[in-house]
Structure formats: C-alpha cells, structure tokens
Amino acid sequence: MFDNPQFQKMDELSERKESFFFLIDFLMDEVKIFAENEIKNKALLIDLPNITNVNYQYETIPDFEWKSFPETLEEYKKGFELVQENLRKGNSYLTNYTTKTEIETNLSLEDIFKFSKAKYKVLFKNEFVFFSPETFVEIVDNKIFTHPMKGTIDAEIEDAEDILKNDPKEKAEHYTVVDLLRNDLSMVADNVQVKEFQRIDYIKTKQKNLLAMSSEIEGEIKPEYQNKIGTILQKLLPAGSILGAPKPKTLEIILEAEQYERGFYTGIAGYFDGKNLDSCVMIRFIEKENGKLFFKSGGGITHQSDLISEYEEMKNKIYVPIY
Q1: Cα–Cα distance for residue pair 76/74, rounded to 1 Å
Q2: Best exposed site among 128, 156, 218, 303 by fewest CB in 10 Å?
Q3: Is 171 within 8 Å of 150 (Cβ atoms)?
Q4: Is 111 helix (H, G, I), strand (E, B) or coil?
Q5: Whether this model's pTM surpasses 0.85
Q6: Whose CA is closest to 123, among 44, 67, 193?
Q7: Hey, how many other C-beta atoms are within 10 angstroms of the C-beta on 212?
Q8: What residues contact 220, with CB distance under 8 A and at least 6 apart?
C-alpha cells in the first residue's frame, strides 16, 4: 500500500498523537519528517498559522533588487502546444503547466523568508524557500477542509474582480478544480460539500498586486481514515490544483511537457500537532541550484486558454510579497 515507508511512519506518529512537521515532493518520492526537537533546533525555518520556530525582531525591509529572466514566448509555446494537443484529444481537461525562471536579487533565501508576507512560509536549509498563500488540506476534529486556489488577475485592472469571476477560461478552470477536489475528498470523507465558492483574495506585492480566486470544500473523515495522516495524504496527492484532471494521464502530460523537474515545488508541507493538521501547497517557490536562484511558476491550461495570457500569468507569478 505504501510506496514510500515515510507515509506509514506518518500514520504511526498520528495514531500515537505525536506532533511532526513534513515536506512531500511533487512526485511523492521524497517525504521528509521532522520531529518536535528538530523543529525546535531549527533544522528548517517554519512560519505557518499553527506553528512557527522563528521570533521576528523588527527590522526595516531592505531596498531590494529583483530581476527575472523568463523563457521566451517561443520556448514557452513548445510545452503549451503539447498540453493543448492533449486537451484537444481529450486526454486531459485541465493541465497545470509550469516553468522555471532564473532570478537575480540581492536578498538571500533567509531574507526572502524573513521579510515576505504569506500564510505559509518555509526555508529548507539553504536549498529552497516558499511563501505560499494556498492551503492544501486542514483536519480539525475529524473534519477535513480544502481551499483550492485557481485564477489570478492583475488587481489594478478596472473591474478586475468581475472580470476574474466571469472570464470563461478562469471560470472553467476553477469549476474543474473544485469538482476534482470534491471527488478527491470523497475518497477519505463523507458528506463532502462546497461551503464557499469563488472567494476573491487580495495579494499584495512590491511588483504587482493580484486578485486570486479560491473556494472552500469540507467533509467528515471516514472512520477507517481517522488518525491516519499518511494514508490520507497519499490518497489525495498529488494536489489536484497544481496537477489537473484526470490525474494519472495529466501527470504523464506534465512530465513530457515540462523541461525541468519540479522537485519539492508543488509538493506539500504541513504540521500535525498531535490532533489536527494544517498543510499547504508549496507554490511561490524559489530554489538555489549551482549558486543561481530559480523561481518556479505556472498555471492551469484548458482548451480555452490563450498562449499570450498564460505566458503573462506565468510571468506575473514571479514575485515576492515583500512591501
């Protein structure tokens, strides 16, 4: 049942009601578990709603430089067209296509962790940092919640909220992800329902302010999955919001279309406190590789997607929420 024994370890810890923090990469090959003492010893820096191991001293935000070098439209188009071809054939009806962009900044990964504002922030050694606004799943008193985030727009555009909510492509993408995650939750929960639909959140950044669209889905965990965090996560992964649908075939398309390995980007991170779980999707992600920094970003592609708009969305997401 368990391809990776770490999922079984998570089950054992949660059944014993022992707290732990975890990182799971996109393909579920690497599962890292950190016990309470490792969190206290700062084996990694964490700032989540239900756990932090950093004590911020008030510091002035430095003037920072930020340059990005996205791939050309022609390079982006190759993967985009491969995705579109599969959508036309009916192999997928939503594919989350992402790319890797070199960035240059005078900030260190630790600076980015310290000064960025986001619901979920983690710095793993000197390897990667993320500042994610997106919850994966929460478990509270044997109820499970997820908040898929799909659809973004430049907040400065006139009537941006109405445009985002009514854009046929964004709407289709959002409906698809909500439907996918409702089905996913139904594998581990009963009485699954959409509680909040197409909520609009404001995301402030120094480069560009964005509006993002989210929904909330909840259910009651089935008795056989209670206190089995590893089993639940393994059933739900990879996260539908950053993969697409149907999952198995869409994963094949992504692995063919993307010219790099996602690694921990679009995997999940979270903390189980002995009773409840909060976890996030590792998006808004910067990785250090051979001394250079790379920002990974992308978006959902449907048959209605326009090449230029998707290319611009990929570039819009290359930001740090430092202001």
Answers
A1: 5
A2: 156
A3: no
A4: helix
A5: yes
A6: 44
A7: 18
A8: 142, 143, 144, 189, 190, 191
